Amino acid sequence: MFKLGADLQVYLNREPIDLRAGINSLAVLVQETMALDPFAPAVFAFCNRRRDRVKLLFFDRSGFVLILRRLTEGKFRWPRREVLVVTLTTEQLHWILDGIDIGAMIRHPVRQYQIAG
After folding, report:
1. What is the DSSP pairing of strand 9-13 with strand 42-47?
2. Using CA atoms in the order 49, 10, 81, 35, what is the torsion angle rounded to 10 degrees?
3. Residue 81's pLDDT is what?
4. Which residues lie across from 69 on neighbouring strands?
């Protein structure tokens, strides 16, 4: 399994797309539909309707890189949000690719302490 740099921004396109789309079609989708720069230091993630395939697109110094991940069983847990584009960290993207539902994750409560002055 590959690891993306922690400094990269990750943008998920929530709407399913036709994954026959190649690099050029996905770059146009990033620019026109998502209103983002496909040459930015970021990863753009797309899934199909069945959510058994994910494509990742990013620009790497001299050209675009396109990665396809297909599951033989199960589905990716794609975030359900009201917005078209979801911003994630690379760690969260790796969780999604590993099958973790980040929408169902619950944080431990954070306690606020006051220092007596």
Report:
1. parallel
2. -90
3. 66
4. 54
